[in-house]
Amino acid sequence: MKRLITSIAISLTALASVAGNLVILHTNDTHSAIDPDDKGIGGIVRHKVLIDSVRASQPNVLLVDAGDAVQGTLYFTLYDGEVERRLMNELGYDIQILGNHEFDNGMERLAAQWRQLNAQRLSSNYDFRGTPLDSVFKPYAIKEYDGKKIGIIALNLNPEGMIAAHNTVGLRYLDAIKAANALAWYLRNVEHVDAVVAVSHIGYDKSTDNTPSDLEVAAATEDIDIIIGGHSHTLIDPDAPDAPAFRVPNAVGDTVLIAQTGSRGRELGEITLDLSTMQARSRLIPVDSRLDARADSSLEAIIAPYRNGIDTLKKTRIGNLSQDMPAGSDILLNWVADEMLAAARGMVHFDVDLSIVNKGGIRRGLPKGHVTKEEIMTMLPFDNHLVLLEIKGSDLINAFKVMKGRGGDGVSDGFDWRNIDPGRTYMLATIDYLANGGDYMEPLTYATQLYRSEGKLDEILMERIESRHGKSIKYNSAAPRM
C-alpha cells in the first residue's frame, strides 16, 4: 500500500511538471475597422467573441497586436484613436506595438492615447529619448506560462520615407536586424527564456533599402522562434495551397514560424506553442456573421455614441456612381488621378502637365450607386493637401522609377511617363505627403512647390462630386497606366 501511494505521488508530480500550451492570438493592420466591412466581414465585436471563447477554453492565452490599429475609417478621423484605444483595452490586449499610421497625428497626440493603454507597449529599435514618447515603451517583455519563460520583442520600420518627417522629430531608428539579434541573444542567454517571439511592423517580404523584411530578419537570426508580422497586409494561411512561406530557416538552419493576418481584422491569427517542445503551429480564424449571436452588448454600448456621428456622414449622399470602382483597381486609381489633375487645373492660371497619386493613399473602393461623404472620407482618410510642383524632367524620371518599382501608382490620363524629357521642366499635381518624400518619393523633394490647396484632398473631391448636382459619374478608363 505504501509503495502504491508513493507511485501515485510520483505520477502526480510528473503530470504537474508537464507544460501545456500557450495560445497566442494576434491581429495586425486592423486600420480602425471597428465595424464589419462592405461585405460583412470583420468587426471588433466579433473579435471579442473569438477572444473570449479561446480564453474560456485555454489557461494560457497571449493577445498581441502588430501595429496600424488606427487610420482607415471615420472612427480615427473623427475621434483621434480614442475609440480604438478604449476597445483594445476592453478586449484585454497583452502586447501592443507601433505601426507607421500610429504616428499620423504626431507624437504628442499618440503619447496621450498610448499612455492610457493597459497592454504592455513595446519598441525594440526606436529611441524615443527627448520626444513625447520618452518612457512610454519598453524594449522587451517576459511572460511566464507553466514554468516556461517567453521573451517578446518589437521591431519597427525605418520612418524615413514612410512617416511624415514632422511627426517623428527626435525619434532615432535603430537597425532592426541588429536590435533583433542583440535582444534575442540577451533574452536567451541572460534572462534564460525558453522561446523568443518577435512582433514586427516591417512587412513580410517587401524590404526597402532602409528596412528589412520579416523574411530577412528570420534568415539573419539565431534565437527568434516566431515572428508575428504586420505592415505588408500579407495573408498567411497555412491551410491555403498558395500560402506564402511560413516556416523558414534561420541563420543556423532552425525553423522560424512567421504569421500575419492580412488586414482590417477579417481574420484572427492563432498560434499554438507547445510549451514542452517549443514547437508551434498557426492558423487563421475567420471573423464573420456566424459570431453575431454571441456579441457582447457591453462592447456595443461603448461603440454606440461614436457610431452616431459616423452614421450621419454615411447617410449624406453627395453623388452617384454608374459603376463599381473596387479597392485596388486600376479604374479607381485612374479616376482619382484624373480628378486631381482637373482640380489642380482649376486652381491655378498656368497649365498642369500631370498628376500622380500613390496606391497606398486610396484606402477603399466605391460601390455602384449613391456616393456618400463617409465613403469619400474613408477612401482618402489622410490629411493630404493637393500641391503643385515645378519639377525637372530628370527628377520626374526618378520618381516614376520609384513608382514602377512597387508595381505602379496612379498617373493622369494622356501623360506618357516612358518619354519624359530630362531637360524639360514639368508642372506636377500630387499630394503633399509625396511632395515631402513620403512613400519613398525622395525625387519629389527636389522640386519647387508653387501651390498648396487650403482644403484636403477628400474635401476637394467631394466638392467636385457635389458640383455635378446629382448627375451620375460615368467613367470607364480601367486599363493600367503603369
Automatic annotation (TrEMBL):
<dbReference type="GO" id="GO:0000166">
    <property type="term" value="F:nucleotide binding"/>
</dbReference>
<dbReference type="InterPro" id="IPR006179">
    <property type="entry name" value="5_nucleotidase/apyrase"/>
</dbReference>
<dbReference type="InterPro" id="IPR036907">
    <property type="entry name" value="5'-Nucleotdase_C_sf"/>
</dbReference>
<dbReference type="InterPro" id="IPR006146">
    <property type="entry name" value="5'-Nucleotdase_CS"/>
</dbReference>
<dbReference type="GO" id="GO:0009166">
    <property type="term" value="P:nucleotide catabolic process"/>
</dbReference>
<feature type="domain" description="Calcineurin-like phosphoesterase">
    <location>
        <begin position="23"/>
        <end position="234"/>
    </location>
</feature>
<comment type="similarity">
    <text>Belongs to the 5'-nucleotidase family.</text>
</comment>
<dbReference type="GO" id="GO:0016788">
    <property type="term" value="F:hydrolase activity, acting on ester bonds"/>
</dbReference>
<feature type="domain" description="5'-Nucleotidase C-terminal">
    <location>
        <begin position="327"/>
        <end position="405"/>
    </location>
</feature>
<dbReference type="InterPro" id="IPR029052">
    <property type="entry name" value="Metallo-depent_PP-like"/>
</dbReference>
<feature type="signal peptide">
    <location>
        <begin position="1"/>
        <end position="19"/>
    </location>
</feature>
<keyword id="KW-0732">Signal</keyword>
<dbReference type="InterPro" id="IPR008334">
    <property type="entry name" value="5'-Nucleotdase_C"/>
</dbReference>
<keyword id="KW-0378">Hydrolase</keyword>
<protein>
    <submittedName>
        <fullName>Bifunctional metallophosphatase/5'-nucleotidase</fullName>
    </submittedName>
</protein>
<dbReference type="Pfam" id="PF00149">
    <property type="entry name" value="Metallophos"/>
</dbReference>
<dbReference type="InterPro" id="IPR004843">
    <property type="entry name" value="Calcineurin-like_PHP"/>
</dbReference>
<dbReference type="Pfam" id="PF02872">
    <property type="entry name" value="5_nucleotid_C"/>
</dbReference>
<dbReference type="GO" id="GO:0046872">
    <property type="term" value="F:metal ion binding"/>
</dbReference>
<keyword id="KW-0547">Nucleotide-binding</keyword>
